[in-house]
Amino acid sequence: MTTPHPRLSINQATIKYTTVAQAIDVVSAAGIQSIGLWREQVQEAGLNESVKMIADSGLRYSTHCRGGWFTAEPGPARQAALNDNRVAIDETAALAAAGAAGSKAALVIVVGGLPEGSRDIVGARERVRDAVATLAPHAEANGVQLALEPLHPMYCSDRAVLSTLDQALDIAADFAPEVVGVTVDTFHLWWDPDVFDKVARAGREGRIASYQVCDWKTPLAADVLLSRHYPGDGVIDFAAFTKAVEATGYTGDVEVELLSQEIWDTDPAEAVRRTIDGFERAVAPFLSNTPVS
Amino acid sequence: MTTPHPRLSINQATIKYTTVAQAIDVVSAAGIQSIGLWREQVQEAGLNESVKMIADSGLRYSTHCRGGWFTAEPGPARQAALNDNRVAIDETAALAAAGAAGSKAALVIVVGGLPEGSRDIVGARERVRDAVATLAPHAEANGVQLALEPLHPMYCSDRAVLSTLDQALDIAADFAPEVVGVTVDTFHLWWDPDVFDKVARAGREGRIASYQVCDWKTPLAADVLLSRHYPGDGVIDFAAFTKAVEATGYTGDVEVELLSQEIWDTDPAEAVRRTIDGFERAVAPFLSNTPVS
């Protein structure tokens, strides 16, 4: 069995049908040192119980997934979304504090798409900026970094009006880097002709909260949300991408988050094993082994 | 029945199952003044016969679809692609010359994706630049404009490594505007946070060969290639987009090209009627009526 790279982290979305306890067990048993959990499962297990399990596991906590979904017009729905993000910030702080040294209190933010019936993409993007400003003080007070994630433009209308790294960085620029950062996910960004310049900017500005590796292949799945592949199984040049991220000085965890019905239908231990193998071949050769910091 | 806007052009892909003769009939019967044909159907009808039909119809010719697919490594396949593009250039010149005043000898270029098994997107993009340079003299000699079309990033790996308007403009910059221009299609570009700046640049540099309007809606069709909608049926802000194009001084045809199984399964006359209605509501109010030039 391949020994997992020390910086590999499994995002629970890769093994979506696990409880927190199962996810921790599977990841630990594989010799992986880091994990990122999803809110739904954490809430099902209970936050305190999840915190205890993370502390007992000795794993690092890489990211908490996820906040956002705050593009609604002002009103009760928007207020509810903002309140829920405050809860997510609290969860992030608690889980990261329970993780091993090198854990990161980063809340991945998927901002949301256009509100139902709206064509006002400019307005939706402005409301993202406003929501980040509203949440930043609570994040700062809890030592949590909001990790804005630009999603692939094919999700622009229904999942994230944030589509490029520069857009995320322009919003982040109004805040301290430890309060608002960005998530750099190969699947979402690989097509961008200027992506390496933007990655360099993200590094220069101290904003890289998480580096996520996930491959792209066509034809896309009929549900494009579930069209992700193990690193190395698709067309992304992980050598070039990973070198660009490494060149910024990023030494944190590298997360694998695979939304795929086929992978979800795989036994979780087997999905983790395949993740380790793909990572070893496609990503690890271009990563330093420096301790996660 | 709505009188079609004088600048509306029907791209034959909207009524894909028509012959050239049928397409011309349906478009003319609806009172539309302009058409763009596809190579497959033109070749089936014969180029000379198609030229004659266009001349007899009194329609303008808006674009010829399409060339490109030239991202292959040097070798026989690439040579064949380049040769085929030379034929497409010749077709474009002949058909546009047969069209009514205001016709445009514009060959829409879909550049192609990554070659099978390749992860070298940088190389593929360089070969696009090389191919354009190779074809430009033949285009220039025939008075044809190569209309580079950036496609939505979800097509980056299998259809077009050209994903943004700036990328297309950067390639075009090495050539005269009448030789290499760009196709501005709302469906492909609407998500880009900087798209209006890029449209302004395209106008300033005299590169807008064609403005195409087509709507975006989710969930996407299972085959994302066929996920297009009549203008007004989705989330694109055609008011803002069309005003941005108009502000550049573009006074040419506005083409509707709808790849959609549902629309293809509609009677062509009915599909054209719905196109006219959608165009009238979503696009026409923001267009000048100035004669096409």
Automatic annotation (TrEMBL), chains A, B:
Keywords: Carbohydrate metabolism, Isomerase. SUPFAM superfamilies: Xylose isomerase-like. It comes from the Bacteria. Gene3D superfamilies: Divalent-metal-dependent TIM barrel enzymes. The keyword Isomerase applies. Residues 25-277 form the Xylose isomerase-like TIM barrel domain. One of its GO terms (molecular function) is isomerase activity. It holds the Pfam family AP_endonuc_2. Coiled coil: none annotated. InterPro entries: IolE/XylAMocC-like, Xyl_isomerase-like_sf, Xyl_isomerase-like_TIM-brl. This is Sugar phosphate isomerase/epimerase.
